[in-house]
Design brief:
- It is built from 7 helices and 11 strands.
- Strands 4-3-5-2-1-6-10-11-9 form a 9-stranded mixed sheet, with helices on both faces. The chain has a two-stranded antiparallel ribbon with strand order 7-8.
- The longest helix has 25 residues, at 67-91.
- The chain has one domain (5-233): Acetylglutamate kinase-like (Carbamate kinase, 3-Layer(aba) Sandwich).
- It has 235 residues and is α/β, with parallel strands linked by helices.
- It has helices at residues 25-39, 67-91, 113-121, 139-149, 183-189, 196-204, 219-224; strands at 5-10, 44-49, 96-100, 109-110, 125-129, 154-159, 164-165, 177-178, 180-181, 209-213, 231-233.
- It is 35% helix and 19% strand.
- The radius of gyration is 17 Å and the shape is globular.
Length: 235
């Protein structure tokens, strides 16, 4: 195995498939199957899920809602996604736990790093929801924080394209692909890998990020097995 413990970052948009909003059952089922294939390799697996398919706090100002309030609404959306993902994964026979930074005792555990690590040691998949629990921070930053707190070897960032490009490949046919790129170049070019706070945290702690296309089946497992998939951000 190339890695022993990984943190998978799933955006909320990844869960809505071809729909413009909400959760697409077929897409969710496919993601759960990919997660199962990865877990069956024997690695420790944690997941941070976003909520952009339901609500984004950054849109709050456009709707006349206070930004902090909007961010809390977005955190609740991540919990909804986490519960849906948990249900789909458990239908495949894998034990999971949802931990949330925004306490919701009736439906999920509070986030405790030591407990999350213990769950993984017992073979459970841990799904982190609620972002960091603080407004003005994205789920990208939450992914970087959680990865460091649980001692992950790498962050896997699932996207709709094959990796990191110098510009949006869905808009520009001449976009240049990077097989490997440094943290500083990502920041200097303002490439939309993860937000600047998350990239800075990973850089300071030498935590690599692998950006890969979630739509290509088995990519997630190929990354875990050490095959050259997507773009690696490091050094």
């Amino acid at each position: 195995m190339a890695y022993k413990r990984i943190l998978l970052k799933l955006s909320g948009e990844a869960l809505m498939g071809k729909k413009g909003y909400g959760i697409d059952p077929e897409t969710m089922g496919e993601i759960a199957s990919e997660v199962k294939a990865v877990k069956e390799t024997g690695i420790d697996l944690a997941i941070v899920v976003g909520g952009g398919n339901i609500y984004r706090g950054m849109r709050a100002g456009q709707q006349g809602i206070d930004r902090a309030t909007g961010d809390y609404m977005g955190m609740i959306a991540t919990v909804m996604n986490a519960l849906a993902l948990q249900d789909n994964i458990e239908r495949l026979g894998l034990p999971t736990r949802v931990q949330t930074a925004v306490q919701m005792a009736a439906i999920a555990e509070p986030y405790i790093a030591r407990r999350a690590i213990r769950h993984m040691e017992k073979g459970r998949i841990v799904i982190f929801a609620g972002g960091t629990g603080n407004p003005f921070f994205t789920t990208d930053t939450a992914a970087a924080l959680r990865a460091m707190e649980i001692g992950a070897d790498v962050i896997l960032k699932a996207t709709r394209v094959n990796g990191v490009y110098d510009k949006d490949p869905e808009v520009h046919e001449d976009a240049v692909f990077f097989a490997e790129i440094g943290y500083m170049e990502v920041l200097a070019r303002n490439l939309k890998v993860m937000d600047a706070t998350a990239i800075s945290l990973c850089m300071e702690n030498k935590l690599p990020i692998i950006v890969f296309n979630l739509k290509d089946k088995h990519n997630m497992k190929r990354v875990v097995l050490g095959e050259p998939v997507g773009t690696i951000v490091r050094g």
